[in-house]
Amino acid sequence: MKFTTHIPTHYNDGTEVKQATLNRIIDAIWKPFKGMTDEGFVTGHWIDEDGTYFTDRCRMISIECNRDDLNLAIRNVRRAGRRLKQRAMYFEVSGYDGVQFLRIQ
Q1: What is the distance between the alpha carbons of residues 63 and 5, in angstroms, rounded to a whole number?
Q2: Which of 89, 78, 79, 83 minimizes the C-alpha distance to 54?
Q3: How far is 60 from 67, CA to CA, in rounded Å?
């Protein structure tokens, strides 16, 4: 399976995530799977359940792994979301389960 996630480059308060911190977070997501594709920067917009509007500049990464590793992928993305103090993280699994927004809180 292939999963894709967006890693915000700023915290929700607008503070930029230090590049070294961002690199460590991305490494922690992909290294257990032994490979990834960095698809570059994307800008996303979404409205949370409480009506809060967000615009995020993100690094989009994609990782190929076994279907048995779905739970590990979800755990790694949620852990990244906690470190980045996010409310939710974009998570798409191609050909398996589609797009999800993983709640962090």
Answers
A1: 9
A2: 89
A3: 20
Instruction: Tell me the one-letter amino acid at 38.
Output: D
- Residue indicated by tokens 């809180």: 105
What is the DSSP pairing of strand 88-94 with strand 2-8?
Answer: antiparallel
Strand 37-47 to strand 53-64: parallel, antiparallel, or no bridges (unpaired)?
antiparallel
Name which of 46, 38, 47 is nearest 4 in CA terms. Answer: 38
pLDDT tens, residue by residue, 23-65: 999 999 999 999 999 999 999 999 999 999 999 999 999 999 9
Strand 2-8, strand 37-47: pairing:
unpaired
Residue in 23, 29, 25, 58 with CA at minimum distance from that of residue 44: 58
pTM, full prediction: 0.88
CB count within 10 Å of CB 22 equals 19
